[in-house]
Amino acid sequence: MCSEDQGAGQLSNVAKVYDKLASTYDATFVNETAQAEDREIVSRIKALDLSQMSVLDLGCGTGFLPDHMKFWDYTGLDISEGMIARAQEKHPLHDFQVGDMADLSCFAPSIFRYVLCTFGGFSYVMQPEKCIDEIYRVLQPGGRIFLQVLGERYYKRRTHIAPQCTHLGYTPAQLRHLFRAFDEVTITGMNWLGDQLPWSIAWERPIARRWPQLCYYLVVEGRKA
Hints:
Blueprint: H1 9-21, H2 25-28, H3 32-46, E1 54-58, H4 64-68, E2 73-78, H5 81-90, E3 95-98, E4 112-117, H6 128-138, E5 139-150, H7 172-178, E6 183-190, H8 205-210, E7 217-223
Parallel strand pairs: 1-2, 1-4, 2-3, 4-5
Antiparallel strand pairs: 5-7, 6-7
């Protein structure tokens, strides 16, 4: 188990909230908008061709990514014991660990080829610089990131499942600054009109690439030098 800063009230609160949600979490996301978001993010990640890569999935929840694709070498990390228990139950052949993504000390340096984080888990981290340093440390040279974080617009989203948890919404400029140690950084958006027109998510890519700040989510991609 990765270590957790016991003095961090934010982490404790997030863990408690998601422990309570774990048993019903998957059933919560069966609406049209959620399904459209799932298809879009899975499509983007499948395009990365991770089949032969070592992957660390931060904020893995109940195992969303293994639900939708196959991995050769996959490790999932989440702060919630309840979510990890559910993920391990569904995917017994994969490795899941409870821990704080801002403290990856249980992993050796340079062991993962890709670090992923979907649906805003990074936005619950109150020490983003520390988290990014840890991600950089565990990535192999040339390793890459794909992080889906909450944009500023997400603050107004009515369907937020855990509004009681403090979260950070980012602008593209803030993310470029935070991830300045990485090469080839790109910031794109995801879901501009999805709450009103879920079918439009797959068609919004040109807008999401040019004006990511309009979207609920921002996607950060980059490469470790």
